[in-house]
Design goal:
Number of helices of chain A: 8
Mean pLDDT of chain B: 92
Mean pLDDT of chain A: 94
Number of helices of chain B: 11
Oligomer: heterodimer
Strand content of chain A: 15-25%
Radius of gyration of chain A: 16 Å
Number of strands of chain A: 7
C-alpha cells in the first residue's frame, strides 16, 4: 500500500510538525504522517475524485491546481515542511514550484522517479524507445509525467535556484535500499528522495 | 412552451435561487423528510441590534427534520440565503408542487442525513415567512412595522439564532451550514460563538460584498423604492404592493444567479412564438422566464423584507472590525471549516471563497476547500451536482463519526 518513498519521508519529519503536501492525491501520505508523526497536515490537490476522498478521510484539503502557483495560498514560512511527492514531474514549472515551496516552509521534501534508472537508460539508449517501467508505467503519448529528470538534473536545478540539498536517498520500487543502490544511486535508484532548503545567503 | 410549463420543466426552474429547489420528488418518497410543520419560537430576551435599536421580543419560525439525540450534540443549523426561508426540506402538504429549497441535500440517506442529524432551519428575523419582520405588528403602533422595522445585520441574525439554539436545548451545533448569504451567517457564527459551532460549512459565499455586488443590490432597491406603489414602504396601508419594483428586483437578481452559459443552454435565443414580433412584448424565452420569475416572486415575498435582506448582505464585512484582516477576524473561530465554491458563479466567484480559505489557512485552522465545476452560476449551490454532494456527504459522514466517537469516550 505504501508508496516507495514514504518511509524515508516519514523518517525526515519530526513529530507534531506542520506539513503541507502539494499534489497530495487522496491524502494517503498525509494520513500516514498524521498516524506516524502526529502532524498538522494540509494537502493540495486538483482532481475532484481525489479531493472527495481526502475530504471523506477527514483531512484538510484545498482544491487547487499547482500549475497556477501556490505562493498566494499560504503565508511565508507557515509550515515546517512542504512535501512534493511523486508530483514534480507532472508540473508545468517545477522550478517555480521548488522556489515557492521554500518560501512557504523552511524545508522541502521532493520525491520523483529517476529518469536515469538503468532500465530507463536501457530502454531509451539501447532499445530506442521511451521507457515504461513500474515507476513510469504510462506510454509517452498519454502520461502526466511531462518533466522527467535524473538525479543530476535535479541537483543542477537546485544549484541554479540556490537550493541546498540536506539529504538524498534512493530506493527501488519495493522501497528497498541496498549496497548496489548506495554505490550507484544514479543508475540503480528507481526513486529519488531529497530534503532541501534555501541556501543561506 | 407556456410559462407555467417552463416552471414544471426541471431544466427551467433551477434559477429559483434562494427560494425553492427544483427537485420534483413527492413528499413521501424515499429520501424525503416527508410532511413537515413549521414551529414558532417566542423569544422574550431583548435583542440589541447593530443599528442601535432593540427588539424587546420576537418570534422565529423554524422547521426541524430528524431527531435530537440524547446528548443533544447532533444538531445542524441551516441558514438561508437572500430570499430563502425556513422551509428547506419536505413538504407542508402532500399536494405541494415543490419540496423545500434544499430538499436534494437534506433527508434520510442524503448528504445531510436526517437519520443521523437533527436539522434546524430557521426563517431569519426581518423575513416575511413567519418570523418577526416588516409584516409583523409593531407593538408601539399596533400596526405592521413596514419600513419601520429595524435594519438588520448578519451579526444580528446570528445572535437571534443563538437564542433559538438555547431554547431548543442545544449548546453546540454539530454544524452550521448555508449557501450565499447563508454562508455569511455560518462565518459569523464561527466568529461570534466559537464554542457553539463544531463545523462550519460555507458554500458559494464571500467574506464581503464587492462594489459590483452592492451595485446590483442598489439597482434592486431603487427598482422597489421608486415604484409609485411603494409609498415609502407603507404600501400595505394603501392596500397595494410595489409589484413592478419587486418584480424588477427579482429579475435582476435572477440574472446574477445564473451564468452566461447556463442561460445560453437553457434559452439561447429561442423565441416563444417561433418568429420575431417587432414589438416590446415577450419574444425571447429568456424574457418570458424572467417575467415569470419576477411575477411569482411578488406573490410570495415582501418588498420591505427584500430591502432589509439586501442591506444585510451589503453590510456584511467581518474583517472591517479587524483592520480589514480577515484572518484576524476569523481568529476566534475554533470550528473546522468546509468551503465550497462553483466555477461559473460570478456573483460570489471561487476567488471570493479562496479569500476565506486563505484567511483560515493563515490562522492555522482546519479547513477543506472544494471548487466544483458547474455551469449553473451562483444557483449551483442549490443543485444536486454529484461531486458537490459527494464532498458534502463525505464531510457530514465525518461529523457523524466524530459524534459517535465522542459519545463512546
Amino acid at each position: 500500500m505504501n508508496r516507495p518513498d514514504w518511509d524515508i519521508v516519514t523518517g525526515w519529519i519530526r513529530k507534531g510538525a506542520r506539513v503541507l503536501d502539494l499534489g497530495c492525491g487522496d491524502g494517503a501520505l498525509l494520513r500516514h504522517l498524521i498516524a506516524e508523526r502526529d502532524v498538522y497536515g494540509v494537502g493540495m490537490e486538483v482532481d475532484d475524485d481525489q479531493v472527495a476522498r481526502a475530504v471523506a478521510a477527514d483531512l484538510n484539503i484545498v482544491q487547487a491546481d499547482l500549475d497556477d502557483g501556490v505562493r498566494d495560498w499560504f503565508c511565508p514560512q507557515s509550515f515546517d515542511y512542504v512535501v512534493v511527492s511523486q508530483t514534480i514531474q507532472a508540473i508545468r514549472h517545477p522550478e517555480r514550484l521548488i522556489a515557492e515551496m521554500l518560501e512557504i516552509a523552511s524545508e522541502g521534501i521532493v520525491t520523483f522517479p529517476n529518469m536515469g534508472y538503468w532500465q530507463n537508460r536501457w530502454q531509451l539508449g539501447v532499445q530506442g524507445m521511451m521507457p515504461t517501467t513500474a515507476a513510469l508505467p504510462n506510454p509517452w503519448y498519454n502520461t502526466p509525467n511531462i518533466h522527467l529528470c535524473t538525479l543530476r538534473d535535479f541537483e543542477s536545478l537546485c544549484e541554479e535556484l540556490g537550493v541546498e540539498i540536506l539529504d538524498r536517498a534512493v530506493v527501488d520500487q519495493e522501497r528497498r535500499s541496498s549496497a548496489l543502490l548506495r554505490a550507484l544511486p544514479h543508475w540503480f535508484g528507481e526513486h529519488a528522495i531529497y530534503r532541501i532548503r534555501k541556501r543561506a545567503v | 412552451m407556456s410559462e407555467s410549463q417552463q416552471m414544471n420543466n426541471p431544466t427551467s426552474s433551477p434559477a429559483s435561487s434562494l427560494g425553492a429547489s427544483s427537485s420534483a420528488s413527492p413528499g413521501t418518497s424515499p429520501g424525503s423528510v416527508g410532511l413537515v410543520k413549521p414551529q414558532i419560537a417566542q423569544i422574550d430576551k431583548p435583542l440589541l441590534l447593530d443599528c442601535g435599536r432593540r427588539l424587546e421580543r420576537y418570534e422565529l419560525v423554524y422547521e426541524t427534520y430528524g431527531e435530537l439525540n440524547e446528548r443533544a450534540d447532533n444538531a445542524v443549523l441551516i441558514c438561508h440565503a437572500l430570499s430563502g426561508d425556513h422551509h428547506a426540506a419536505g413538504r407542508h402538504h402532500p399536494e405541494d408542487r415543490k419540496p423545500g429549497w434544499w430538499d436534494n441535500a437534506i433527508g434520510p440517506g442524503k448528504p445531510i442525513d436526517t437519520d443521523r442529524f437533527f436539522v434546524v432551519s430557521v426563517n431569519n428575523l426581518g423575513g416575511c415567512k413567519g418570523s418577526t419582520g416588516p409584516l409583523s405588528e409593531n407593538p408601539e403602533t399596533g400596526r405592521p412595522y413596514g419600513p419601520d422595522f429595524p435594519i438588520l445585520t448578519v451579526h444580528d441574525w446570528v445572535d437571534s439564532q443563538h437564542e433559538l439554539m438555547l431554547q431548543l436545548g442545544i449548546s453546540r451545533w454539530a454544524a452550521v451550514t448555508g449557501g450565499s448569504l447563508g454562508g455569511m451567517q455560518v462565518m459569523q457564527w464561527a466568529i461570534s460563538y466559537p464554542e457553539a459551532i463544531a463545523h462550519a460549512v460555507v458554500i458559494a459565499a464571500a467574506p464581503k460584498l464587492s462594489a459590483q455586488n452592492i451595485a446590483f443590490n442598489e439597482v434592486a432597491r431603487q427598482a422597489i423604492i421608486t415604484d409609485p406603489d411603494f409609498h415609502d414602504g407603507r404600501y400595505a396601508e394603501h392596500g397595494v404592493i410595489p409589484r413592478r419594483g419587486l418584480m424588477l428586483a427579482r429579475m435582476l437578481g435572477h440574472i446574477t444567479y445564473l451564468s452566461d452559459d447556463a442561460m445560453r443552454a437553457k434559452f439561447d435565443r429561442e423565441l416563444r412564438s417561433g418568429k420575431l414580433q417587432y414589438g416590446f412584448d415577450v419574444e425571447f424565452q429568456v424574457e418570458s422566464y424572467l417575467r415569470y420569475q419576477g411575477r411569482s416572486f411578488v406573490d410570495r415575498f415582501d418588498a420591505n423584507t427584500y430591502l432589509l435582506m439586501t442591506k444585510a448582505l451589503d453590510y456584511f464585512d467581518p474583517a472591517a472590525e479587524a483592520n480589514d484582516d480577515l484572518a484576524a477576524a476569523l481568529a476566534p473561530a475554533t470550528a473546522r471549516f468546509l468551503v465550497i465554491s462553483f466555477t461559473s458563479d460570478w456573483r460570489f466567484p471561487p476567488a471570493r471563497s479562496r479569500e476565506i480559505v486563505r484567511a483560515l489557512l493563515a490562522g492555522g485552522k482546519s479547513v477543506s476547500y472544494a471548487e466544483v465545476k458547474a455551469h449553473q452560476g451562483h444557483d449551483a449551490f442549490l443543485m444536486p451536482i454529484p461531486y458537490y454532494h459527494q464532498v458534502l456527504r463525505g464531510y457530514f459522514d465525518n461529523i457523524a463519526r466524530r459524534l459517535t466517537e465522542e459519545a463512546g469516550v
